[in-house]
Write a structure and sequence with these properties.
Helices cover 83% and strands 0% of the residues. It is mainly α. It has a domain of 40 residues. The longest helix is centred in the middle third of the chain and has 40 residues. 0% of the residues are buried.
Length: 128
């Protein structure tokens, strides 16, 4: 029988795992030490420079938002214009017609429901 000999340089996966957990706190601490060292090298802006930069960024954001809004309005108008080219009836007329039909259907439903309620009420009073 041949015995498996472990070479002194090779470690098992279990010992590698344990060593990784042992080194973990030191690795985390080293990362934070490096971060603090880098933050000490940073030249921070003055209060006046910081405020002026913030104002410039906010104005730029407003300008870009306005441009996006105008492009959105223009593209919506273009799509509506193309849609209305293919349909002779204006879109606003269709909406009004649908609302009138809906109002008429609702009125008919309410009349039917009221008639049924009175009929049921009359039936219960007659039964008593």
């Amino acid at each position: 029988m041949a015995e498996e000999k472990k070479t002194p340089g090779k470690q098992s996966w279990f010992s590698k795992l344990i060593n990784w957990f042992v080194r973990l706190p030191g690795s985390i601490a080293k990362a934070f030490k490096n971060m603090v060292a880098e933050l000490r090298k940073v030249t921070w802006p003055s209060k006046k420079k910081l405020i002026s930069s913030c104002i410039i960024v906010l104005l730029f954001m407003l300008l870009v938002g306005l441009c996006v809004h105008l492009v959105d309005l223009g593209s919506a108008a273009a799509v509506n214009g193309l849609y209305n080219l293919g349909h002779p009836t204006a879109a606003s007329d269709l909406v009004i017609d649908e609302n009138e039909a809906l109002i008429e259907e609702t009125a008919e439903t309410e009349e039917t429901t009221e008639g049924e309620v009175t009929t049921e009420t009359e039936a219960t009073t007659e039964a008593e």
